[in-house]
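Team,

Forwarding the record for the chain on the shared tracking sheet. I've put the sequence and predicted structure together so nobody has to dig through attachments.
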Amino acid sequence: MGNVPEGDSLHRAARRLQVLVGQRIAAESPHPRARAEGVAERIDGRTLESVHAHGKNLILRFEGGIALRSHLRMSGRWSVRPRGEVRAGKPWLVLRGEQAEGVLWNGPVLELHTRALARLGPDILERPPRIGTMLERMRRSDPSRRLGEAMLDQSLVAGIGNMWLAEALWDVEVSPWRRLGDVPEAHRRRALEAAAALMRESVDTGRGRGHRVYRRAGRPCPRCRTTIRSWGQGDDNRMAYWCPRCQAGDDPPRS
C-alpha cells in the first residue's frame, strides 16, 4: 500500500491541474457512485477558473460561482494525462480540456460546496505558513491530548498526515506521545516548522526525502540505532512511529 494522500499530494495535484485553468471543460463521471452525485452535469461545459489546495482538500472553481471540493480520504488520487489517452477502469471524474484531462480515481468525497473548509485550520503549506495562528489554536486545545493527535487535527493545522508528522517529530526529537500541555511552545513551533519545510520540499521537488522513522518499526533509528517503535494513536488509531531514545517522553497507553 502506498502513502495515503497528505497536504503535499494535494498541492502537487493542484499544480498539475493548472494546465486546465482557463479552458472550457467537458466533464463526465464513469464510476456509477460518482455519477449518482450529479457533479459532472453541473460543471460540464463550464470554464475552470482556478484550482487550489487547502490542507487535504482540492478546490476547483468554475464559472458561474460553482465550487467543487475533492477530498481523497485514504486512497484517492488525481492524475493529468493527454486528452483521450486509453485508460482501464472507471474513474470518479474526468475533466477534459483542449489537450489534457484531469482524472480522479477512487475519490470518495466530491461536493459542490466548500462548507467543510470553515472547520479547517491554516494550511501548513501556505507561503509563509501561519505558525502563530496554529500555535494559538493549540493553546486553546485540550492540554491533556497527545502532541501527535493535535498535529493531525485538521481544525488546528490543515494538511499534516501520519507520514510527515512522524518525520517532523523525529527531526526535532520530540515524542508524539507527550501531552500537549507538557510540550513547550518553542518545541511545538519547531515541530510545525519542520513539517512545513519537509512538505514544501516535497511539493517543490516532486519527491520527498527517504523515511527516517515512518513505516520503519523494528529497524534501527538512523541517528542513534535504537529500535524504532510504532503504536496506534488517538480515536482513529492512526499509527505513530518514533524512536524511544531520540524522542524520549510518555509511553503510549496500553489499555
